[in-house]
């Protein structure tokens, strides 16, 4: 629990005043905040092997500390041997305490474990949200490398209340996400 409170407290005591000064907000409520973190794994290969989805659910649950949910296909696509309502992905939405806990582990432990890591790209979606693509799930210490059957990537989306990309970038940079220096 102590880990969680430090990032949340840091947001209130250090990040909010810094953002207020940077953007000239008149109220604390104008400051952008992190609303949720969504982890998503698309498993197109799961069409052939159903066990991949179960393994992905277990891994995602271990990484986040929250039960992962299967995502199902919406329609039939014969070229991909895909039927409606087949499991083809896994996702988790983190909010509040678990979100801050995961963010801290991502910044302090997981990202530094990436080989030849030089920082993350700073491409936002136009509304202040950011999606980070990770190619291997083994950067998370919760995953036992010996039990891996297939290396799977994932997307981590940071949803903020920022109105512009500039505000969202400033918020995530203050949290300590290691963006590349252009």
Walk me through the structure:
The protein has about 180 residues and is an alpha+beta fold. The longest helix is centred in the first third of the chain and has 22 residues, at about 1-25. Helix 1 (about 1-25) crosses helix 3 and helix 1 crosses helix 4 (about 165-175). About 35% of the residues lie in helices and about 20% in strands. The mean pLDDT is about 80. The chain is globular. It has a five-stranded antiparallel sheet with strand order 2-3-1-5-4. The protein starts with a helix and ends in a 7-residue tail after the last helix. It has helices spanning about 1-25, 50-65, 95-110, 165-175; strands at about 35-40, 70, 85-95, 130-135, 155-160.
Structure at a glance:
34% of the residues lie in helices and 18% in strands. The chain contains four helices and five strands, in the order H-E-H-E-E-H-E-E-H.
Key features of this structure:
globular, alpha+beta, five-stranded antiparallel beta sheet
Helical amount: 25-40%
Number of strands: 5
Query: What structural class do helix, strand and pairing data support?
Result: alpha+beta
- Taken from the alpha-carbon principal axes, the silhouette is globular
Average pLDDT number? 79
Q: Strand count, sense and closure of the main sheet?
A: 5 strands, antiparallel
Unreliable runs: none
The helix count comes to 4
Tell me the β content.
15-25%
The sequence of SSEs as H and E is HEHEEHEEH
Measured between the Cα atoms of the first and last residue, the distance is 36 Å
Reading side by side through the largest sheet, how are the strands ordered?
A: 2-3-1-5-4
- Radius of gyration over C-alpha positions, nearest whole angstrom: 18 Å
